[in-house]
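Quick one, tokens below. Sequence please?
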């Protein structure tokens, strides 16, 4: 079993309150879950209205597949104009 994990720190442009942040973030998280069949959750900066850190987990039997899915998710988020990726880290075990 191969497990891939990724943390992605986001700057949320359209957010002026925690309610707006949750709306944008929930939309992104649900789209990632349905499109890529991975586990996603907000893991940090819960009280900041313009930043978020999401964690992603992928399980597979091939290392290359885990890496490929994570890179596709990063590209997917980069194409969303509501947010900007500040940094990301990826680890495959």
């Amino acid at each position: 079993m191969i497990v891939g994990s990724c943390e992605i720190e986001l700057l949320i442009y359209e957010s002026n309150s925690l309610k707006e942040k949750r709306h944008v973030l929930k939309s992104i998280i649900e789209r990632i879950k349905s499109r890529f069949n991975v586990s996603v959750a907000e893991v940090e900066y819960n009280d900041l209205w313009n930043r978020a850190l999401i964690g992603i987990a992928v399980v597979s039997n091939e290392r290359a597949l885990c890496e490929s899915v994570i890179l596709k998710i990063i590209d997917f988020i980069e194409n969303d104009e509501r947010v900007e990726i500040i940094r990301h880290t990826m680890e495959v075990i």
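The mean pLDDT is 93. Helices lie at 18-36, 63-78.
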